[in-house]
Amino acid sequence: MRIAERRTIVDTIAAISTGLSNSGISIIRVSGPETFHIMDCIFRGKKTGKKLSEQKSHTIHYGWITDGNEIVDEVLVSVMRAPHTYTAEDVAEINCHGGSLVTKKVLRTVLKSGARLAEAGEFTKRAFLNGRIDLSKAEAVMEVIRAKSDLALKNSMAQLQGNVLKEISDLREKMIHYTAYIEAALDDPEHISLEGFTNELKASIIEIRDRLFRLISSAENGRMLREGIRTVILGKPNVGKSSLLNLFAGEERAIVTDIAGTTRDTIEETVTVRGIALSLIDTAGIRSTEDVVEKIGVEKAKKAAQDADLILYLADATSEITEEEKEILDLISNKKSIILLNKIDLCEAPDSSVLEKLTGQKVLCISAKEEEGLDALYDRIEKMFFQKELSYNEDLYITGERQKQSLQDAYDAMGKVLDSIDAGMPEDFYSIDLMQGYESLGEITGESVDEDLVNTIFREFCMGK
Questions:
Q1: CB-based contacts of 301: which residues, under 8 Å, 6+ apart?
Q2: Within 10 A of 124 (CB to CB), how many other CB atoms are there?
Q3: Torsion from C-alpha of 190, 196, 200, 205, nearest 10 degrees
């Protein structure tokens, strides 16, 4: 679906664009060619006899929404004319009183007067179809809404401001330039020479592949920005795992007792530390047990550890390291982990030397009960995953699996160009794979993408956006 092929929109849509709850204000958004005709039918201004269709763009008007002779609500209506709107269509936004009943009544009045209820993400979809934003910006809109941390929000805002579009457009421009040069040289060999071209092309393709590789490599950090770092709290029973979860969460999310095996299942909580989202998972204490339920919990703990981005391993400063604990440490030896010696408030001189020898890393001494040592833990997490603060201009993390796959396809296509060059193949072979890479990157921005995929992407949006 290239921009030139995007369909003409003929209907007008409406939806509630704010949360449906008891609030001060709710907003109903209306967009499409019949927006102001519909609003003229239902809006009665207080201070002027002018219809909304006669008002200037980007103005706000006080009055009432009416259904026949019935006044539905007292409102402010924003008038915004195409193409300078979110959807690039005529748009009206009705600011009515908050509350489920009155908001739904205003929406019903709009629908009754000729609008259609918008599908999920349809306003943003129209912005894309009308050429106001590309597909990467459209997806960034939803990432902004879903952001769980400051870093995720900054990355989404960077994409919304066009960082992905700028990078992809530059790469595509290089690919199409070389493709066009090859085609022109083959068509007119007398005037356009390919002598020395292969060396220039190879150097450029290597540079393009390096840039694609960096973007692909950023996807794992992008996933963690979007979903949070999957952080599993692991250890034997009664070492303070649930206390640590509660400390992170700032509330009693997990039951804490002196009885070993209290936690039988995984408990999950999303928290933000230094602007970084952690998807925390408290697990059952790992030990040999004949209790059927506890045994299931232990297996789930081991599975969670396998899938973790980060493991916080807790040991008890008041007890010796057991053989069972050594086996657990072997399980996580190939994972990113931070080793914590807990309960230092209960002993005068906590000894972390044994743990440091077993794990080969600096052990952090903490007290989950007394909230000691947490700043050092937060520092370690920050340094392990994000060395510097994300900026709008320097750092770009790919957050979507769809974008990652398109980048991988383009990367593979550039690899085929290099293979053809090394094999001494004719130049027209190069242009085939260059165009494949060009098309693959076009799927990210929406320059080359089918309608079914577009519909799938926007169905994941929330209503009213």
A1: 232, 234, 266, 283, 284, 285, 286
A2: 24
A3: 80
- 4 pLDDT higher than 60: no
Burial code (b: 16+ CB inside 10 Å, e: under 16) for 341-356 equals bbbbeeeeebebeebe
**Torsion 338-339-345-351 (CA) sign:** negative
Per-residue pLDDT tens for 20-46? Answer: 777 889 999 999 999 999 999 999 998
Angle between helices 122-129 and 135-146 (to 10 degrees): 160
Q: State phi, psi for 231 to the nearest 5 degrees.
A: -115, 115
3-class SS letters over the chain: CCHHHCCCCCCCEEEECCCCCCCCEEEEEEECCCHHHHHHHHEEECCCCCCHHHCCCCEEEEEEEEECCEEEEEEEEEEECCCCCCCCCCEEEEEEECCHHHHHHHHHHHHHCCCEECCCCHHHHHHHHCCCCCHHHHHHHHHHHHCCCHHHHHHHHHHHCCHHHHHHHHHHHHHHHHHHHHHHHHHCCCCCCCCCHHHHHHHHHHHHHHHHHHHHHCHHHHHHHHHCEEEEEECCCCCCHHHHHHHHHCCCCCCCCCCCCCCCCCEEEEEEECCEEEEEEECCCCCCCCCHHHHHHHHHHHHHHHHCCEEEEEEECCCCCCHHHHHHHHHCCCCCEEEEEECHHHCCCCCCHHHHHHHCCCCEECECCCCECHHHHHHHHHHHHCCCCCCCCCCCCCCCHHHHHHHHHHHHHHHHHHHHHHCCCCHHHHHHHHHHHHHHHHHHHCCCCCHHHHHHHHHCCCCCC
Range 266-282 average pLDDT = 80
Listed residue (150, 425, 381) closest to 280, CA to CA: 381
φ, ψ dihedrals at 187, nearest 5°: -80, -30
The pLDDT of residue 390 is 40
410 in Cβ contact with 440 (< 8 Å): yes
Among 291, 303, 273, CA closest to 386: 273
Kind of pairing between the strands at 59-67 and 43-45: antiparallel
Q: What does the radius of gyration of the chain's CA atoms come to, in whole angstroms?
A: 29
pTM score, two decimals? 0.71
